[in-house]
Amino acid sequence: MGQPSSLEISRASELKPIEDVAGEMGLGSHLLEQYGRGVAKVDLAAIEDLADRPKAKYVVVSAVTPTPLGEGKTTTTIGLGQGLNRTGRRAVIAIRQPSLGPTLGIKGGAAGGGHSQVVPMERLNLHLTGDMHAVTAAHNLLAAMVDDHLFRGNALGLEPADVSWRRVLDVDDRVLRNIVVGLGSRTDGTPRQTGFDITAASEVMATLALSTSLRDLRERLGRIVVGYTRRPEQRPVTAEELHAAGTMTVLLRDALKPNLLQTLENTPALVHCGPFGNIATGNSSVVADLIGIHAGDYLVTEAGFGADMGAERFFNLKCRVSGLVPDAAVLVTTVRALKVHSGRHKVVAGRPLPTELMAENPDDVLAGANNLRKQIGNIRLHGVTPVVAINAFPTDHPSEHDAIRRVAEEAGVRCALSTHFAEGGRGATELAEAVAEAADEPGGFRFLYSLDAGLRKKIETIATQVYGADGVDYAPAAAGALDLYERRGWGGLPICVAKTHLSLSSDPSLRGAPTGWRLPVREVRASVGAGFIYPICGDMRTMPGLGSDPAAAHIDIDDHGDTVGLF
Amino acid sequence: MGQPSSLEISRASELKPIEDVAGEMGLGSHLLEQYGRGVAKVDLAAIEDLADRPKAKYVVVSAVTPTPLGEGKTTTTIGLGQGLNRTGRRAVIAIRQPSLGPTLGIKGGAAGGGHSQVVPMERLNLHLTGDMHAVTAAHNLLAAMVDDHLFRGNALGLEPADVSWRRVLDVDDRVLRNIVVGLGSRTDGTPRQTGFDITAASEVMATLALSTSLRDLRERLGRIVVGYTRRPEQRPVTAEELHAAGTMTVLLRDALKPNLLQTLENTPALVHCGPFGNIATGNSSVVADLIGIHAGDYLVTEAGFGADMGAERFFNLKCRVSGLVPDAAVLVTTVRALKVHSGRHKVVAGRPLPTELMAENPDDVLAGANNLRKQIGNIRLHGVTPVVAINAFPTDHPSEHDAIRRVAEEAGVRCALSTHFAEGGRGATELAEAVAEAADEPGGFRFLYSLDAGLRKKIETIATQVYGADGVDYAPAAAGALDLYERRGWGGLPICVAKTHLSLSSDPSLRGAPTGWRLPVREVRASVGAGFIYPICGDMRTMPGLGSDPAAAHIDIDDHGDTVGLF
Fold it and tell me: What positions does the entry give for ATP binding (chains A, B) (predicted)?
């Protein structure tokens, strides 16, 4: 028989009617639209409607620098929500929507796992309510309008070689990375080189996640820059000038409404947006949090990758837009990750874990603990109280958990073991208590940098204080872009550094907390619609390829018509 | 003040709760999943559930050969449904889902108009429940798996130049018609030339529309041919061999469920699938009709373009798959269309109608009546009773309506004037009575050809008997393909002739009922998954371009956040 699979656990769960889940959040049925069983969209009028209710404690879930396998941040977010409920507190969680491309292209579905899942799992992992597709449609409409503008005489004087707006699809499709369009006859358009990114990498997705209202979305979409006019002017050309932003907004009007689902233990789960974690914020939407913040005692929201990545953007980009102030931050830590940070082990996605990694070895855990210490510091930099959550795996040894507890204790940080994967909320009550205590401490939240510090200064602050670099080196193109952006009046935008999530540094092979290095900025780009500047450090892949044995080759329906192989 | 716009009429309408609409069809709430206000998906279990209820009269709505403006077939379908209800009969209508590409790219939304609309109009014209996007995702997953197969050593021996599976997007984007993919470095795939079609042109869409169950869909998807192995074998390579069909089915499992909406007068409207009308059937789904046929006294279903196109496929492809037998066929006729068929007038999409076309002139109507006569014959060829519906326009003159009535009378066909656009169901009661009488006549439905007649014989039967050609000429490539397909065992598939919808002939400039011509077949392709062979006669555009003043440039939100400019 063995352990039941995540899919079996998910199928055996009892969903509450979603309007009951919403009712517990204070959301009346006039604010809900059902989208299939167990899923509803929440109208943004909920933000106003709930405004008089008490504010929840706001908890962000981050992590140490992860291995390529991920350290269970989503699972911990779900487990913590369930754990808070088990201890008599009303919690709401907020997570990102999974991307269809990687779900089918590499690893199969994921939205937590074991006894900490968001359900209905199949809906969540496939189309959900179509938000990803709406982003795809809005993004590609703008692309078609750009190319049609070139085709119809190019009145705005766009330089074809400087069109930065690509196309997107939510599929892992390597051959679309670099393409030539517009071949064929004269009426088939103007040939030029371009490509597709995955939908999660779309600036439209980043914009949707950072918008505070339909009107705000409309204005941000209008500011999107698709390219530049011919030199020497190099004037930015916007979606507004192409008359695309109105239709893009209308295409996104339902996608702007957060989706409400529930965990296996009926904790409300707002699932909304899924921007990339390197070239964008890696955070779920501002509007979901603006609703969730008045819908319970605790709002637990997830930020992608390690604390240097998602949490830093959570603090300096997302909270700046939302005006919300975090009360505590969870740092998900695994024995496995710290062992890898010792530099003595290596894990590769898609291959079995090496046996020596699983042998009892608290020394290796301690040897990798500098990463945890640095990420604790990164939370504290923002005046927020961290809590270390040890995400327990069956292959862990108690001595290794003790090693992590010791590191946390030395740093003066609360630490809790969490077995939510195997046990659901019951396994996360220690963590829930620790988080509740931390959130009750007097807060001193602060941004890392002021917006008027200048682009270089802001980049350098993140690089030195958060990543531990000695400084920043700009390639000539990057330096030129920064000068140009400041002249264009974009100097006051916040920064989203696009770098690897596999190291605190920009070199994915460096483990622990690397020192004695400088951050090389190869290139700088502007997401003016979403509202940030992103320096690019290293190769950022924005269109994955299918894996050598993708989940898509194993998913099917069985004789009863049920889905198999997704999870 | 003037006449209210279609959008204003739509906004002012009172929607019934969709579960009440479903209840009147005999659909219990266990068969429904709400997808936002006023929209529900219907579970395919409804086919079994309703099987014991009496069978509705089955009415297909077709038309004379249309002008580029269309002659109001959808509006008439909706109006007739409302008219049947007004005369005390319970009607259900079935229509196709509009395509986002043309809606935004050229003309704005459409799902009827005036007082004959399906609502909620915005949902219908934009994403609805995401079915189009699901087709896009399933289609493009297969494309990615094809290219990944080439990239990873091409074990099946696919000839890259003979890969016929392209990609799709629901956008009007001319530069995607002909592209080169796989540029960049080695890990970016194998370069080759290909392109995108609009989603409505996807074989996945055609397959979804012709499937009778989830299992049938699974099997059809597995049979999809993506290309051929190297010569001389030229063996077809299928989605099954690429291990893609299971995941494609799972991606489409919700899209296979028909969408239930309602008309302005609360007539149930099943909206499902939107396959192209030239290279595919141009008919809404089989499963929608299998549900609707037991859900009222009348099921009114629409078939795309003129009776030579959509209705011929309705009879010989869709009814063959569904096993349903039509009781009557409506031929939508307009004064405008017959005047154009006289050869004395011309209309161009996007330009105002010429004044001389609007002057009273029953002689021109009579001069174009051969088209109507031929389309009446095309219905009768299948043993079905036709009814001529004059779709009234404000610019018509009574003498012109009389001219049409005279033509119908001479042909021995019932004829009714319908003012459903201006008056809703009240304006379609004469048509409703005529249709009810026609449907009560003893039926003699027959297929035009037997499946075992051989591919050439089947094509020639359609060309000579339906189109009025003297014969068929095959280009060498077409003849070669037909021979190859028969050797492969596909000779028993039915035929879907891809030709212009603007003429009974294959020359879009020929009006009326052209004689003395031969059908030139340039090329023949196989939709083995959907289950038909399609000879191509003339240029078939499968990816539209944006118009010079697309609707997308005018759609926006107003100060209240309401959508404007869509309609």
Answer: 67-74
Pairwise CB contact (< 8 Å): A175 & B182: yes
Write the CATH number for A161. 3.30.1510.10
Based on the domain organization, do B163 and B125 belong to the same domain? no
Q: Is the pLDDT of residue B567 over 80?
A: no
Task: Based on the fold, state whether residues B109 and B197 are members of the same structural domain.
Answer: no
Interchain contact, A173 vs B144, CB within 8 Å: yes
Domain with B227 in it = 131-252
Q: Which of A175, A177, A539, A543 should be substituted to probe chain B, the one whose Cβ sees the most B Cβ atoms within 10 Å?
A: A175
Measured distance CA(B298)–CA(A236) in Å, rounded: 58
Domain assignment present for residue A558? The answer is: no
Residues of A with CB below 8 A from B169's CB?
140, 169
- Domain of B266: which CATH number? 3.40.50.300
Q: Are B237 and B397 in contact (CB under 8 A)?
A: no
∠ Cα B166 A151 B555 (to 5°): 85
In B513-522, which positions are buried (b, 16+ CB within 10 angstroms) versus exposed (e)?
bbeebebbbb
Diameter of chain A measured on Cα atoms = 71
CA-based nearest distance A565→chain B, Å: 9
Please state the domain count of chain B: 3
Domain-ending residue, one of A394, A409, A440: A440
Q: Is the pLDDT of residue B2 over 70?
A: no
Same domain, A262 and A370: yes
Please tell me the distance from the alpha carbon of residue A271 to that of residue A259, in angstroms, as a whole number.
Answer: 5
- Residue with token string 């999660």: A200
Neighbouring CB atoms inside 10 A of B318's CB total 26
Find the helix packing angle between B131-151 and B245-252, rounded to 10°.
Answer: 160
SS3 state of residue A538: coil
Interface A-B: count of C-beta contacts within 8 A: 234
Q: Do the chains contact at A214 and B147, CB–CB below 8 Å?
A: no
Give the burial class of B84: count Cβ atoms within 10 A of its Cβ; 0-12 exposed, 13-18 middle, 19 or more buried.
buried
CA distance A43 to chain B (A): 11
| CA B339 to chain CA mean position, Å | 25
**A185 within some domain:** yes
Compute the C-alpha angle A280/A282/A285, nearest 5°: 100
Say yes or no for a CB contact (<8 Å) between A254 and B174.
no
User: Are residues B269 and B183 part of one domain?
Assistant: no
The shortest CB-CB distance from A141 to any of B36, B171, B188 is to: B171
**Chain B hits for A140, Cβ within 8 Å:** 169, 171, 173
User: A521 with A375, same domain?
Assistant: no
Of B252, B284, B301, the position where a domain reaches its end is: B252
Supply the pLDDT for residue B1. 42
From chain B, pick out residues whose CB is under 8 angstroms from the CB of A548. 152
Known binding residues of B for ATP are 67-74
Closest CA to A292 of A146, A54, A68, A92: A92
Q: Is residue A559 part of a domain?
A: no
What is the structure's pLDDT at A12? 80
Does A544 reside within a domain?
no
Distances, alpha carbon A50 to alpha carbons A46, A53, A229, A461, in Å: 6, 6, 46, 37
State yes or no: ipTM above 0.95: yes
For chain B, give the mean pLDDT: 96
Any idea what the CATH number is for the domain that residue A513 is in?
A: 3.10.410.10
CB contact under 8 A, B169 and A173: no
The stretch B53-71 carries a mean pLDDT of 96
B98 with B146, same domain: the answer is no
By Cβ distance, the residue of A152, A247, A545 closest to B148 is A545
Residue B56 sits in the same domain as residue B26:
yes
Whether B474 and B391 share a structural domain: no
Asked if A555's CB is within 8 angstroms of B250's CB, the reply is yes
